[in-house]
Structure formats: structure tokens, C-alpha cells
Write a structure and sequence with these properties.
The complex is a heterodimer. Chain A is α/β, with parallel strands linked by helices. Helix content of chain A is about 40%, strand content about 15%. The relative contact order of chain A is 0.14. By secondary structure, chain B is of the alpha/beta class. In chain B, a hairpin with a 6-residue loop joins strand 5 and strand 6. Chain B: It comes from Pongo abelii.
């Protein structure tokens, strides 16, 4: 992909090809002709590709480090426990692709027969390789992931995203616009520093008309392994996710406590469900996964009713 | 790109430090804020530039939400925390009409604002400008480095948590620093452990060992571990009144806490770290140094000795650097 000028107004903006910063750009003529304003043909191509994908779920958070990748991995593993369900996990965090490590993959893309993963991490030859790309190039990669990967028959496509409300998020919503996303699961931790970013993410979802399946409050309470008493590492001084969900009228799907074994299992690429089946965190994950499945099934039967009526 | 600093709004800034991490949620904003407060406590004039446009945390951390940015003859006036103007801030958080408004911008627009933050904010005379960044290695980072390059930043502090998943991302940030010619001053490991308030047992909630491993991989100083705050010691930060120097959160005294990192940056007697005796078991014994934390509660820090000279002398090409 060619470099765009630093002050590029955007190929689909009104100033495309006409701004002062467009001078000298190789795409200037193309933008000025209004070609940027026409919908990207890839959107239709992706819609075709996604016909074999039943449910698409985005995992979002305005805030970094709240556990999006951890949750995405557990959601994928949890859904894949049903051997008759085909699960795909797509990692569009181009700069910080954590999913291969969390899933214990070193380049092979299938965790189980029915659980496949795609990430830019597989395309990097060394763990030190940095992906230093500007927005347009990242968008191109996401387009390729959606359009050029042979997804096949998939029951659930889970898309793990980086923190923020920027290129990656706009692109994935834009490219999947015609293919229809079931909804977004938004992850937060209890403290206000996270919630203030997550409120922005909820507003982003509303702006782009992305349905919100619900909010998961992660790292919610810590049980000391020695004395077994609970304390809050990230205190919910402003009411935590519960109050935020009430204020913004979004469902709270559940709270996952902070179990140190989660981090250790992610580091080793093991399944937390298999290694600690009785942890309160496992039970919390399972309950949340069930609620997500119920949302997707309800939505599917609504659509089928609409089509048949 | 010209090497000499052009006269501009950063001409009066003596040292620029970036706080980076490939990984989100490791504590970049917390470390930036604490470093700035510690430097201010040491009598320096400090600015904090928050280039995290999607998740601007700095205003809230310093109780400055809702403050407005005003124009002055040299451009935008930064937001001052106190009458003495010893700490100044700039963040997109001050430019939003509503605090929950999402900044949903693609790269080029983010680049443009960051350039403006560097060129149009009238920072004035500052000893240190701490630049807090979002996670990743993308538009914001490239824009910030390109805009700051003529002013020759001192370098970057890289923050990680102990777990391998974090180290996996932060390694890529180190490559980014290498490729962009930004010196890595050192690695700070945050959230190293959590002390139960009931029984004082310290647990490694996010695994162990990542910070040291990263520092070794990169051949840079490991500046130390920061465990979690003792819970209950973190009251909500009230919005600061204009007259509120006294309501600026207390900072660690002397060599404790982030004071150790700041003193490693200051003066001819700067040493990287205070030597500590190796602890009999992790997180206990004489190596712990307690001091008032960012928000008034006790904060417990453990710093490892290093054979290298001060960070400042490294940055200026002095001898003894282990990297």
C-alpha cells in the first residue's frame, strides 16, 4: 500500500482530492473524481463470504488491558466445547496481536478441529517484529482478513479488537456492515478510569448502530489464595459497571473475578476451563457465554420469523 | 527532517520523555502522572502531554476534568494544576464537549491533532515534558515522534506488567523504538503484586518476571517493580479548585516511589536506583520502601540495584551504561 500524505482528509471525505495536503498525492485524481465516495466493492464481497458465518460477535473496550483478548479466547474455547459448533476467532489488533499466545499457537491456526484462529501474529516471523503501520494500511489488512480468508461454515465468528475507537473499529464495522453483526460485547474493569473510556465505546456503538449484547466487568474482585477473603484491586469508586449499565441502559452480562491462574494460563496458552474447572471465574465465564448464546439465538429466530412472515 | 530545534512552542522545554507500551492497561498514564508529580516534587516545572486521543486518562488522574483550554498569543494555553504553574497538561479530554463523547477518528485526523498539540500549545519554560501515549505502534506514536524529533527527546520509559502476554506486545514496542531511533531509558514493571489487605500476603496476580526479562532482551536498565496500591488507600480524586496547590495529591518523599526514577534523571549525583538487600522472599523484608502514594495511601515499592550509571548520563553519552 502506498503511503498517504500525513494530512490526508480521507478518501471518503468531502475534501478528498481537493485539500491542500492532497497536492502531490498519487491518488489525488482518483479522490477528486469522487471515486472515494462510492462504496468499497469489498463490502459486497465480504457479505458473500460471510454468508456461511451464522453469528458475528465483536469484543470491544475503549480501555486497554481490561481483558478483551482474554475474554475473546475464553468465549471461543467455551463455545468450542460443543464439538458440533464451528468457531472462528479473528484477532484484528494489528499492533498488539495477543491471541496466538493466549491460545497457545505458534503458527498453526487450529486450536481444536472446530476452533480456528486468524491473527497478524501468524504473519510475523519474529516475536520482536513490530507492525508500525498507519491507519490506511491496517484497514487494508482487516479487509483482507475478512474477504480473503476462507472462513467456511462457521457458527460463531468472534472478533477481538484493540483498545480505542479508531481505524480498526471503524473498518471492521464498515466492512461487516452488509454482512450484519449480531452485536458487541464490551469489556471493562470496575474502576472509573476504565469506565470513562468504556462509556465512549458504548457511544461509538450507538453512533455506528452496532447492537450491544452487554457489558462484562472483568477483574471484579480478588480472592486471596491464602485467607480466601475478597478485596478489590480496582475499586469501583463510581459504582462500577453495574451503575454505568443502569445509567446507559445496557445489560450487564456478568462479573469475572480476578484469578491469578487466568493470567498464568494465558501465558502458557492453556485452557483455563480445563485447568481450573471449579474456579469462580470459570463459573462466571460460563454464565456469560450462555447469555451471549441466548442473545444470538434470539436474534436469529427473530430474523427467521421476519423472513418467513 | 531537520535536526536542529526550530524556535517554537517546545523551544523552552529542556527534556522530553515519552512513556510507551505496546500493551494497553499496563499503567502508562499512571506512571506518567506519578513521574510528573515526583519531578515536580523535586522542584521541577513539568508538563504532561496526553496523546491518547481515544482514551485520555490524564485529566481524571489529576482531578482536572472539565477544565477548558484557552487561547493565548502563542497558541493554546495548557491547563495548569496550580497557581505556580509547576504542572501543566494538555489532553484531548479538555477539548471534548461532553466527557463521554467518543473520538472516532481515523489516523490522518489523529496525526493532525497531535501535530497541533506539539506546535500550538504554549508550553513555555519547562524542565520536563512527559508524553503519555496510547498502546500500540501506530499513528499516534509515529505522529508524536515525528513532531518531537527536532526537539531531541531524552528517550522513552517503557511500561509492562509481569505476564508473558504483556511482554509479547511490549517487545514490539522496543523494536519500534529502535526503528525510530528513540532511546529506551528503561523498563518499569507495573502491577507486580498485590498485598491482601486482610492478611498481608502478596500474590502475583499477573504472573512474574516479565519486566526483567524484557529489560534483558532489550539490553536496557530494569528500573523496578511497582506493586498494586494497598486497596482502600485510593479515594476518588476530587476536582481541583483553581487555588489548589495543597489539593494536588501528595508525592513520595525523597528517594521513594517514582521519586527514585525522577532522581535518576536529576543532577550530577543521580544514581539509577537505591541499592537494596536481596529479599529473603519476594515482596517482603528490608527491600521494601514505603511511602505515600499518588493518592495519599501507602505505596510500597521495591527497586533492584543496577550496575549502570544514571539514566541521565546514559542519555547524554556518559560512561558506565550497561547497554
Amino acid at each position: 500500500m502506498e503511503e498517504v500524505p500525513h494530512d490526508c482528509p480521507g478518501a471518503d471525505s468531502a475534501q478528498a482530492g481537493r485539500g491542500a495536503s492532497c497536492q502531490g498525492c498519487p491518488n489525488q485524481r482518483l479522490c477528486a473524481s469522487g471515486a472515494g465516495a462510492t462504496p468499497d466493492p469489498a463490502i459486497e464481497e465480504i457479505k458473500e463470504k460471510m454468508k456461511t458465518v451464522k453469528h458475528k460477535i465483536l469484543v470491544l473496550s475503549g480501555k486497554g488491558g481490561v481483558g478483551k483478548s482474554t475474554f475473546s479466547a475464553h468465549l471461543a474455547r467455551g463455545l468450542a466445547e460443543d464439538e458440533n459448533t464451528q468457531i472462528a476467532l479473528l484477532d484484528i489488533d494489528i499492533c498488539g496481536p495477543s491471541i496466538p499466545k493466549i491460545m497457545g499457537l505458534e503458527g498453526e491456526q487450529y486450536v481444536e478441529d472446530n476452533l480456528g484462529v486468524m491473527s497478524v501474529g501468524f504473519l510475523l516471523s519474529s516475536p520482536d517484529d513490530a507492525v508500525i503501520w498507519r491507519g490506511p494500511k491496517k484497514n487494508g489488512m482487516i479487509k483482507q482478513f475478512l474477504r480473503d480468508v476462507d472462513w467456511g461454515e462457521v457458527d460463531y465468528l468472534i472478533v477481538d479488537t484493540p483498545p480505542g475507537t479508531s481505524d480498526e473499529h471503524l473498518s471492521v464495522v464498515q466492512y461487516l456492515a452488509a454482512a450484519h453483526i449480531d452485536g458487541a460485547v464490551i469489556i471493562t474493569t470496575p474502576q472509573e478510569v476504565s469506565l470513562q473510556d468504556v462509556r465512549k465505546e458504548i457511544n461509538f456503538c450507538r453512533k455506528v448502530k452496532l447492537p450491544i449484547i452487554g457489558v462484562v466487568e472483568n477483574m471484579s474482585g480478588f480472592i486471596c489464595p491464602k485467607c480466601k477473603k475478597e478485596s478489590q484491586i480496582f475499586p469501583p469508586t463510581t459504582g462500577g459497571a453495574e451503575l454505568m449499565c443502569q445509567d446507559l441502559e445496557v445489560p450487564l452480562l456478568g462479573r469475572v473475578p480476578l484469578d491469578p491462574l487466568i493470567g498464568k494460563n494465558c501465558d502458557k496458552g492453556h485452557s483455563f476451563f480445563i485447568d481450573t474447572p471449579d474456579s469462580p471465574a470459570t463459573l462466571a465465564y460460563r454464565s456469560i457465554i450462555q447469555r451471549i448464546q441466548e442473545f444470538c439465538n434470539l436474534h436469529q429466530s427473530k430474523e427467521e420469523n421476519l423472513i418467513s412472515s | 527532517m531537520e535536526g536542529a530545534a526550530e524556535p517554537g512552542n517546545l523551544a523552552g522545554v529542556r527534556h522530553i520523555i515519552l512513556v510507551l507500551s505496546g500493551k494497553g492497561g499496563v499503567g502508562k498514564s499512571t506512571v506518567s502522572t506519578e513521574l510528573a508529580l515526583a519531578l515536580r516534587h523535586a522542584g521541577k516545572k513539568v508538563g504532561i502531554l496526553d496523546v491518547d486521543l481515544c482514551g485520555p486518562s490524564i485529566p481524571r488522574m489529576l482531578g482536572a476534568q472539565g477544565r477548558a483550554v484557552h487561547q493565548c498569543d502563542r497558541g493554546w494555553a495548557p491547563v495548569f494544576l496550580d497557581r505556580e504553574q509547576s504542572i501543566s497538561l494538555m489532553s484531548v479530554g479538555f477539548l471534548l464537549e461532553k466527557p463521554d463523547e467518543a473520538v472516532v477518528w481515523r489516523g490522518p485526523k489523529k496525526n493532525a491533532l497531535i501535530k497541533q498539540f506539539v506546535s500550538d500549545v504554549a508550553w513555555g519554560e519547562l524542565d520536563y515534558l512527559v508524553v503519555d501515549t496510547p498502546p500500540g505502534t501506530s499513528d499516534e506514536h509515529m505522529a508524536a515522534i515525528e513532531a518531537l524529533r527536532p526537539y531531541q527527546p531524552l528517550g522513552a520509559l517503557v511500561v509492562t506488567t509481569p505476564q508473558a502476554v504483556s511482554v509479547g506486545d511490549v517487545r514490539r514496542e522496543l523494536t519500534f523504538c529502535r526503528k525510530t531511533g528513540l532511546r529506551v531509558m528503561g523498563v518499569v514493571e507495573n502491577m507486580s503484586g498485590f498485598t491482601c489487605p486482610h492478611c498481608a500476603e502478596c500474590t502475583s496476580v499477573f504472573s512474574r518476571g516479565g519486566g526483567e526479562e524484557l529489560a534483558q532482551l532489550a539490553g536496557v536498565p530494569f528500573l523496578g517493580e511497582c506493586p498494586e496500591l494497598v486497596p482502600g488507600s485510593r479515594p476518588p480524586v476530587p476536582s481541583l479548585p483553581w487555588a489548589g496547590l495543597t489539593s494536588v495529591p501528595p508525592v513520595p518523599e525523597g528517594e521513594e516511589g517514582m521519586g527514585a526514577v525522577s532522581s535518576s534523571l536529576l543532577g550530577p549525583h543521580a544514581t539509577l536506583l537505591r541499592p537494596v538487600a536481596p529479599p529473603p522472599t519476594p515482596f517482603s523484608g528490608p527491600s521494601w520502601v514505603a511511602g505515600p502514594g499518588l493518592l495519599g495511601g501507602p505505596r510500597v515499592w521495591r527497586w533492584k540495584p543496577s550496575g549502570s550509571a544514571s539514566v541521565l548520563s546514559m542519555a547524554t553519552g556518559g560512561s558506565g551504561a550497561s547497554s
